[in-house]
Description:
The protein contains four helices and ten strands. By secondary structure, the chain is an alpha+beta fold. The strands form two sheets. Strands 1, 3, 4, 5, 7, 8 and 10 form a seven-stranded mixed beta sheet that branches. A three-stranded antiparallel beta sheet has the order 2-6-9, with no helix packed on it. The longest helix has 26 residues, at about 175-199. The N and C termini lie far apart (about 115 Å).
Amino acid sequence: MVEVADGAWAVTSANIGDVAPTTLSEDDKAAVADGANATLTLRVHALGNVGDADAQAASALISQLGATAGSWNDLSLSLAVQTREDRAATQTGNAVKLAVAVPNALRKDGRTFWLIRVHDGMAEILANGTGTTLEGESKLFSSYLIAYKDAATAATAATQPAARTTVPSTGDASLAVAPLLVGLGLAALAAARRLQAEL
Length: 199
């Protein structure tokens, strides 16, 4: 079965009961053979802080993905065998199927998500997608992270600054050309007078 604490991800497993026998020790198996019941429970609770090794391993992976860390949860296993005290289990013989609902606070159109497990300082992607549920499987249980990346937006054309112009603010471009025409006329007149003087 799966137990989800307040504020944790909504997690379900389709085969947690079937995996229980693969997690039993030899003593557990003997107890079950004698009629004891064995129950494997997946417990999920939110993590406010993670260890430095886990944080560094996750940071390196999400950096390669170009992603952002969303939220951390701890997924742990507890094995209960009748007549024996419950004990923690960090590994199963067969993989546990996981369906993790992406928290509403992280959901956004066009966003890609990754479910990342960090175990003994090693970060590994278990699932990814753009939907609201991430489905994967795992034999190892410790810290888990949902990372995300937004879709790239279309690049907008850079706005070029308006060219400086001498056109008056009236908008009449002919006024700006007038000084140039006057200058050319004066130059032509001066050339004509020099020619007459030489004659």
